[in-house]
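Hi support team,

I've been running sequence recovery on a batch of backbones for a student project. Most finish fine, but this one hangs at about 90% for roughly twenty minutes before it completes. I'm not sure whether the input is malformed or the queue is just slow. I've pasted the structure tokens below so you can try to reproduce it. Let me know if you need the job ID as well.

Thanks,
M.K.
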């Protein structure tokens, strides 16, 4: 009998033969999967390999080749071609084709414009969708092109660009037309290299009306100031409902033509927008600042009548502008702007925006010196006037200086100018100095020689009254200049001029003085 000896030397577990697990290639992914032509897309994945050539490495949008900007083994960046359509995007690596997913082509669309009417220099806001996040490279000469906005036939400057909103500035040469947004894109050449000429995908068009620009001059001043609106297309004549407002307050319309409107800042004007009303429509054409006249100095603070009083300050304006007249010489013949001394109107000698000189009138009283600026409130139809208010503004001198500020001659003071005099028995002396407490004069010789006229002669005026007097005048009731001269007179007493230093009386009786001892 045979014996079998089993020797166990170990244990073996037969589990079979296993192959290692092979990782599946990550399918390409397109980011984003919807965009406008010209946008840059990325394709992420694995196994793209190195870039060899534009023929070997390609990306196709529904059969349209895209311009490749970056190719790495795990990332590809391309620009959406102008001919892209909705459909699949394929990555071509030699003869190998990888599906990157579906693509949707977006179309830039304008929904609204604000404002629908604007003038050159204004900002135009374009609201819509699919504009992209930026306008593209800053350099307009880049081979990839730049997204742009066109108004009429003018490419305008972009201030802000967002996917749903664009803000542009209307240039001076822009005209009424249609607004379009253009998305730039560059496609590759037939061999896949860069680049074919830039092409644009254009949005829908939306009309905008470009208004003629309007210049407001001046843009600041006190009430009553004449303001001119320069432009075109205002209309040859003004309709009853047409007008101009300052801070919501209607102004007096002095002149209305197709290229210029002349108005005066009303008495109740407020700083704020200048609004032109035409054919039932309103348009803001500028901003106006209403200045308040302010006096800062008065020289002298006390003086007799006839003194030239100097008032310094700011925002007094122009003397000729009283609130209603257009371009004509009537602006300068009379003004409602005045200065009152103790409640009495004074005679204006010179009026500037920061200085006023006036003569103290004969009827002046001690009291406040008040500068009054004239303005008005128009009737409901915009014509002058519902009544004058007074406040202040001027630059042309009064008629005391000259009868016409346009006269081609140097201004001359008329005979009615203020005067101070010292009279010896009716004959004026030469004043050498004059202060509030002391006057120095040179005693005249003529009194000793006698004075007179044809048929009337007084041989001796050496003794008589010594008179100091000061003259001035008042405005007439209609505000024009002026009443006859009126005088304040002070008689110091009788003064006798001593006839010393004169030739001996026999000098006058000698018919041949050349033979006399005095020769």
């Amino acid at each position: 009998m045979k014996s079998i000896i089993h020797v166990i030397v170990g244990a073996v577990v037969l589990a079979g033969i296993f192959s290692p697990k092979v990782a599946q290639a990550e399918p390409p992914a397109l980011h984003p999967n919807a965009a406008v032509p010209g946008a840059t897309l990325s394709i992420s994945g694995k196994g793209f390999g190195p870039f060899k050539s534009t023929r070997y490495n390609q990306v196709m949008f529904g059969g349209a080749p895209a311009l490749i900007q970056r190719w790495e083994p795990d990332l590809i960046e391309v620009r959406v071609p102008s001919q892209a359509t909705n459909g699949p995007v394929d990555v071509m690596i030699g003869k190998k084709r990888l599906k990157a997913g579906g693509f949707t082509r977006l179309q830039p669309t304008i929904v609204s414009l604000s404002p629908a009417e604007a003038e050159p220099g204004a900002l135009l806001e374009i609201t819509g969708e699919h504009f992209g996040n930026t306008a593209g490279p800053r350099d307009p000469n880049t081979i990839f092109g730049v997204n742009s906005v066109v108004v009429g036939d003018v490419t305008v400057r972009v201030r802000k660009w967002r996917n749903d909103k664009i803000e542009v500035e209307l240039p001076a040469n822009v005209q009424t037309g249609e607004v379009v947004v253009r998305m730039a894109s560059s496609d590759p050449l037939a061999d896949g290299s860069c680049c074919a000429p830039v092409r644009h995908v254009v949005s829908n068009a939306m009309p905008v009306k470009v208004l003629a620009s309007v210049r407001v001059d001046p843009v600041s001043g006190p009430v009553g100031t004449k303001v001119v609106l320069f432009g075109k297309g205002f209309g040859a004549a003004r309709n009853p409902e047409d007008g101009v407002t300052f801070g919501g307050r209607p102004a007096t319309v002095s002149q209305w033509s197709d290229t210029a409107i002349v108005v005066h800042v009303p008495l109740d004007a407020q700083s704020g927008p200048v609004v032109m009303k035409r054919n039932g429509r309103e348009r803001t054409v500028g901003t106006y600042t209403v200045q308040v006249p302010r006096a800062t100095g008065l020289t002298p603070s006390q003086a007799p009548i006839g003194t030239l009083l100097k008032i310094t300050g700011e925002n007094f304006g122009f003397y000729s502008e009283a609130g209603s007249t257009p371009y004509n010489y009537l602006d300068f013949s009379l003004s409602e702007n005045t200065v009152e001394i103790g409640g009495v109107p004074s005679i204006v000698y010179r009026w500037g925006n920061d200085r006023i000189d006036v003569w103290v009138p004969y009827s002046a009283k001690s009291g406040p010196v008040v500068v009054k600026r004239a303005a008005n409130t128009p009737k409901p139809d915009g014509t002058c006037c519902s009544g004058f208010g007074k406040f202040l503004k001027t630059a042309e001198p009064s008629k005391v200086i000259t009868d016409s500020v346009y006269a081609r001659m140097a201004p001359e003071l008329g005979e009615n100018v203020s005067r101070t005099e010292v009279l010896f028995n009716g004959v004026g002396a030469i004043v050498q100095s004059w202060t509030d407490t002391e006057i120095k004069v040179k005693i005249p010789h003529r009194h000793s020689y006698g004075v007179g006229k044809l048929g009337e002669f007084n041989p001796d005026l050496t003794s008589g009254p010594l008179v100091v007097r000061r003259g001035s005048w008042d405005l007439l009731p209609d505000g024009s200049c002026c009443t006859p001269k009126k005088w304040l007179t002070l008689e110091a007493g009788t003064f006798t001029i001593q006839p010393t230093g004169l030739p001996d009386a026999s000098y006058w009786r000698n018919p041949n003085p050349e033979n006399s001892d005095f020769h």
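--
Follow-up from support: It reproduced on our side and the slowdown came from queue contention, not your input. The longest strand covers residues 486-496. No action needed from you.
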